[in-house]
Design a protein that fits this description.
Helix 15 packs parallel to helix 16, helix 27 runs antiparallel to helix 28 and helix 28 runs antiparallel to helix 29. The protein starts with a strand and ends in a 7-residue tail after the last helix. It has a 5-stranded parallel β-sheet, with helices on both faces. Strands 7-8-9-6-10 form a 5-stranded parallel β-sheet, sandwiched between helices. 47% of the residues lie in helices and 10% in strands. By secondary structure, it is of the alpha/beta class.
């Protein structure tokens, strides 16, 4: 056994004496402990001496005496002139841990009442010893001695004779079932024909992709979720995704590739078409059930064509060959699959509920009335499932189920172009009832959800509940206890407005701001940077809240007309930019920053969201080894384009006037580049032309020449030879 080096901080004379006694005890028990106090001043200097002691050929183990002071010095949370030795040692130790990947040498030791909170996070989950006295009678001290000398506390007995054992068959393979992201609903009524049709599509081996089209709130997602839940025992693999809830196709593609077995491609910067093609190859050979819910955010608003190459190649690949079934729900038709429409990719239009089915749903929700009255009400709302559900629960909760009180909802005034008008009228009645009944907390929570385009996670909800209150928005929330909050949430779940989902925070690693600026300024290559750090203050797991998009739209619209709209988004922006390291790693790490850009723009903080978040932290600048990190290293073109779109007040036409002209032209160019990469050439050409006009007007001839070249290429790609 070589030497054992002791790393510690000089907290106080008493602490120094305690560490010395510890080292002396180890030496007395035959362990060659090394301590700085055993030397006067090494000729090579203390810094070089420490580096030598930490080398594996010199010290077989390093004992880290962890205290609050030691931790603060390791983390650099003291004055720069204080604790340099510990700070220097800790960085060397971190590099060893990073290079060796496993920890067999560095052992945390807790003396004099120190706790595990004082252990640096990089080794906190490794074994530690909490020692009370320096004697073999102390169990922890004795265990440490066994560890350092490599002598087990118990001698392994000799191997005996193998006893014959009766074997029994066990199941060794299980169908990979991904946790569902689809909305949950207790009721599915009036969809027997559609369920039978889905059963037939799953069984006939002819249907590869089924698209279900209907307006919002008709019941597409509920149908898909209920039917999918009956197939878990009949699939080889199951995976679903809600684009309403997750937003970015890049996150979907990454998560799906990891689930289906190609994590390497998921982490690469390969283009979307290649990733979608590979995903289809992984899915097609198996009896896989894939549910893609709410596809319309990725479709062109006018034509319905998919704007995402990964989804295009995935769906076309599955339409051509698929042993399982892909079910799509969307508000728009999918012309990308027209070639396969009469063969492997049928498209169904989901009808609204019949008046009989609507009456049955009202009865199940607790509405009391004659069959004729219930059928008439169902017909009046055009069989719109969400409207019937909300209206039925409203009558049951607020008026004892009396159908005659339907007159409180002005259905005849509703714009029913998409039948969302009827749903909004019911929400107005709910809003008035909650206000009249003094349920200001429930009302505030519903308005709070109007800020989000995805499930509201516990950390974001907590940020909005923190004092000081946002006037006219969170006044009733800041003083709530957790028990009162949970009671209000439970009430909203019962009313059908809110869905509560378990949420586990991601484990995000990255670089702190100081390290990011250092490596960028010195052009340090990624491989030579300091090891990644795990984000501090990781939020606790909890319950996320979500609502139907129409519910979010209604209450978001109510809030948008108030001053609280900007202040609430600003609060979320501040929280999200501090929730991850300055440079978070990977697509998952960037998600809070992408979300921060959305809230920053809604709050009117366009320039901050651009320069401090999008350009400096997501893109990581425009020069150097880390430049354009999100697209060049991760291939997150779609997520990047979604972030850039937030800076436009009129999509691809007019940028926020708060942005400087130079920033506007840069964003136009970046948007054009990403649109081109996604195959959206017409949109890219319009933006490139606008950028060329700006550079010409400003006499920025180099940039103008680049824009002109790009414009000419786009003209040629679109077949416009004359313009090129």
């Amino acid at each position: 056994m070589s030497k054992v080096f002791i790393s510690y901080s000089h907290d106080s004379p008493e602490h120094e004496e305690l560490v010395l006694q510890f080292a002396n005890a180890l030496r007395a028990h035959g362990i060659d402990a090394e301590l700085d106090r055993y030397h006067v001043r090494p000729p090579q200097g203390w810094r070089q001496w420490c580096e030598e002691q930490l080398r594996p050929e010199v010290s077989s183990h390093v004992l880290m005496i962890c205290t609050e002071t030691y931790l603060r010095r390791v983390e650099g949370k003291v004055a720069i002139e204080v604790g340099r030795g510990v700070f220097h040692e800790s960085h060397i130790i971190q590099n060893y841990l990073y290079d060796e990947k496993v920890n067999e040498r560095f052992i945390p030791v807790l003396l004099d009442g120190a706790t595990s909170e004082h252990i640096p996070i990089r080794i906190r989950n490794h074994g530690r010893y909490a020692i009370s006295k320096f004697d073999i009678t102390d169990a922890e001290y004795k265990a440490l001695c066994h560890d350092l000398t490599g002598r087990p506390a118990i001698t392994k007995p000799d191997l005996g004779t193998l006893v014959p054992l009766e074997a029994r068959p066990v199941q060794t393979t299980f169908a990979p079932i991904a946790p569902s992201r689809l909305p949950s609903s207790a009721l599915l009524i009036g969809r027997d024909d559609e369920v039978k049709a889905l059963d037939a599509a799953w069984s006939d081996n002819k249907s590869h992709v089924v698209t279900i089209v209907a307006w919002g709130g008709v019941g597409k997602s509920t149908l898909a979720a209920h039917w999918a839940a009956t197939k878990y025992d009949d699939v080889e693999r199951y995976f679903d995704w809600s684009f309403y809830r997750q937003g970015s196709s890049d996150v979907f593609v990454k998560t799906a590739l990891e689930f289906f077995g190609d994590a390497a491609l998921a982490a690469s910067a390969a283009d979307g078409w290649q990733k979608g093609e590979r995903l289809a190859q992984l899915i097609a050979p198996h009896r896989t059930l894939l549910i893609l819910d709410g596809l319309e955010p990725l479709q062109d608003a006018k034509t319905g064509e998919l704007r995402d190459p990964a989804l295009k190649s995935l769906l076309r690949g599955l339409a051509a060959r698929n042993r399982g079934l892909c079910v799509i729900t969307t508000r728009q038709e999918t012309p990308d699959l027209d070639t396969f429409r009469k063969t492997t990719a049928p498209q169904w239009k989901l009808a609204r509920l019949s008046k009989e089915a609507g009456a049955s749903l009202l009865e199940r929700l607790g509405v009391n009335g004659t069959a004729t009255e219930c059928e008439t009400l169902a017909a009046d709302v055009k069989g719109h499932a969400l409207t019937l559900t909300l209206l039925g629960k409203f009558l049951a909760e607020a008026h004892g189920g009396d159908i005659r009180r339907r007159d409180l909802v002005s259905l005849h005034e509703a714009d029913d172009e998409e039948t969302s008008g009827h749903a909004f009228r019911v929400m107005e009645a709910y809003e008035e009832w909650l206000r009249r009944d003094g349920r200001v907390v429930e009302l505030a929570i519903l308005r709070l959800l109007g800020l989000f385009d995805r499930p509201a996670t516990p950390d974001c909800l907590a940020a909005l509940r923190e004092p000081p209150a946002i006037v006219g928005f969170s006044d009733s929330l800041v003083t709530l206890s957790d028990a009162q909050w949970n009671l209000a949430v439970t009430r909203l779940v019962q009313l059908g407005f809110v869905e509560a989902q378990p949420w586990e925070p991601p484990n995000i690693a990255g670089y702190g701001e100081e390290e990011a600026r250092r490596v960028k300024a010195k052009q340090i290559a990624p491989a030579d940077a300091s090891p990644l750090q795990i984000a501090d203050g990781r939020p606790m797991a909890g319950i996320a809240l979500d609502a139907h998009p129409l519910i979010r739209e209604y209450f978001g619209g109510q809030l948008r007309r108030t001053a609280a709209w900007r202040e609430a988004h600003s609060r979320l922006y501040e929280h999200l930019i501090s929730s991850v390291p300055y440079w978070p790693e990977g697509i998952d790490g960037l998600q809070p920053l992408y979300q921060a850009v959305v809230h920053g723009c809604y709050s009117g903080r366009y320039e901050e969201a651009h320069s401090e978040v999008y350009r400096d932290r997501i893109v990581r600048g425009t020069s150097g080894s880390y430049a354009f990190y999100s697209t060049k290293l991760l291939g997150a073109v779609g997520a990047d384009l979604a972030a850039i779109s937030c800076f436009f007040v009129l999509r691809w036409t007019e940028l926020a006037p708060e942005l400087p002209k130079s920033t506007q032209s840069w964003l136009q160019g970046q948007a054009a580049f990403r649109l081109r990469a996604l195959g959206r050439l017409d949109e890219a050409r319009d933006l490139t032309r606008a950028a060329l006009e700006f550079f010409t007007a400003e006499k920025e001839w180099t940039n103008a020449a680049i824009a002109a070249g790009n414009l000419s290429e786009l003209d040629l790609m679109l077949g416009d030879v004359t313009s090129a």
